[in-house]
Backbone:
């Protein structure tokens, strides 16, 4: 069975890709891939996404140097989401936080800084 | 700052929600939430999603009993993805696998069973 035969892209031709640190388990970011960015990711073993805001291919770290080296790719039961287990060269978030998920949502919906680098514990 | 003021829903009124085991760091599933399912999740502290296939609210575990008790919610830098750190009552996947991401994608795109419960290691 090949990924291409089972992968379900959405109506924009995209699939959700969760990036997780392959050693710590920390969830670093969520991005979206089209077929071309997935091909590049599989070939180069560096995470490449489709930027929905810029509508172009986005090789993560191309500018910042903070490349995500892909150690393993997983696909979920519905084949409509991917999990990329990566070795990040530097901070994943453009804010310089280790993870893009650096803010906590409290019970009342208040958003606060977690201040802990979202470690997997 | 409240989540409701910053959250960016997509053109279908949905936001991507990654579910992670709050202790092991294992990524368990990816779901989508609309405002109502997010409200329920915040109030009940059990993960509730919008089922895109069935077009209805989906309180995870409602039928199977495999509820996801929500220990913490994170929001990402763009406020267009959520991370739910959960305590799962049982297997998260409908296949009875611990995680929905139980299949590995090899370099050539071949999909294989990971056979390891996708542990965070």
Residues:
């Amino acid at each position: 069975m090949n990924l291409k035969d089972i992968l379900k892209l959405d109506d924009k031709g995209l699939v959700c890709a969760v990036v997780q640190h392959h050693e710590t388990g920390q969830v670093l970011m969520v991005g979206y891939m089209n077929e071309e960015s997935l091909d590049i990711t599989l070939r180069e073993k560096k995470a490449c996404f489709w930027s929905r805001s810029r509508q172009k291919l986005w090789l993560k770290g191309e500018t910042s140097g903070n490349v995500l080296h892909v150690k393993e790719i997983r696909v979920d039961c519905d084949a409509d989401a991917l999990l990329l287990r990566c070795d990040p060269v530097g901070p994943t978030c453009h804010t310089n936080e280790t993870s893009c998920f650096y803010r906590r949502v409290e019970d009342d919906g208040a958003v606060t800084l977690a201040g802990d680098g979202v470690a997997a514990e």
About this structure: Chain A has a mean pLDDT of 94.
